[in-house]
Amino acid sequence: MKLLILDAGHCLSLALARESNRRSDVELVIESSLAITPQRLDDVAPDALIVPPLSRPINADPASVTAHAEAVEACLGLCRQRDLPLVWCVSDQLYEQGHEEPIDEHVIPEPRDDDLRRLVQAGDRIRAELPRHLIVRLGPLFALDGSHAWLGEVLDGLVRGEEQRAASDVVFCPTSSDAVAMALIGILQQQGCGADAWGSYHLAGTEPVSAYTFVSMVRTQLQTRLEGRGESVELGGVKALNHHHDQPLRRVLNCRRVLEVFGVHQKPWRLEVGRMLDLWCLARDEADGLHKEPGKA
């Protein structure tokens, strides 16, 4: 199976590259930007085209949101001409107003923000014009590297002693980019084998949590690891922000359908954060020249 993903520097693109390198049944081609020419698409001849999400669209400038929507619609046009499956990953922030209960796949976002509505319009076009599509709605992505790599940004800021500000009244499911990459490949493999289960799916981690609690837990685990390694680092603190004074905004995705259709289980974010922190510490050792050979004191 050959996959083409856009935006080479995106944390999801990097995660897909790592996952495909571990496998012999996937060939991944990565384009540097969100733009793809018809000639390039014909030359690569992929089995599916993947567009990573615009992370945190609520905080993005309007020009970036419009550019992303236009790029997605351009991809839609090319895929429609070639009957090529399109996979568009979308931030859960499109559910701007949240919901008291977990949000099912059939619920189309209805944001009040004009920019977010522009992204919903792109999704409406995909559903109407391209039968073979996957719209994959994700919780806030976290990774160690790449653009939109939330965890990497938090770790770098903490080590520099910078205060991390995070909402204590917005509840969501943090989502590992590595877990998403593994799930996407598995889903597309099944589609290639005749599953024919196109449409919208929710793919997020387990255990809803506030941004403040997530960042605080990351800080605690980082502190524990550094102390265990004999390092004394004055980490930055974590400050709670409150935007919704009446009641917390819950933006929790119900991921039952991706389990029922494809057998994809959601990975607990705590385990993924722990694994990534171990990798971060290993990279820190190697960068500092402190990595010891097995068996040596």
TrEMBL record:
Q: Which InterPro entries match?
A: NAD(P)-bd_dom_sf (IPR036291), RmlD-like-bd (IPR029903)
Provide the RmlD-like substrate binding domain boundaries: 66-278
Q: Write down the superkingdom of origin.
A: Bacteria
This protein is called what?
Answer: dTDP-4-dehydrorhamnose reductase
State the species of origin.
Halomonas halmophila
List the lineage, top down.
Bacteria, Pseudomonadati, Pseudomonadota, Gammaproteobacteria, Oceanospirillales
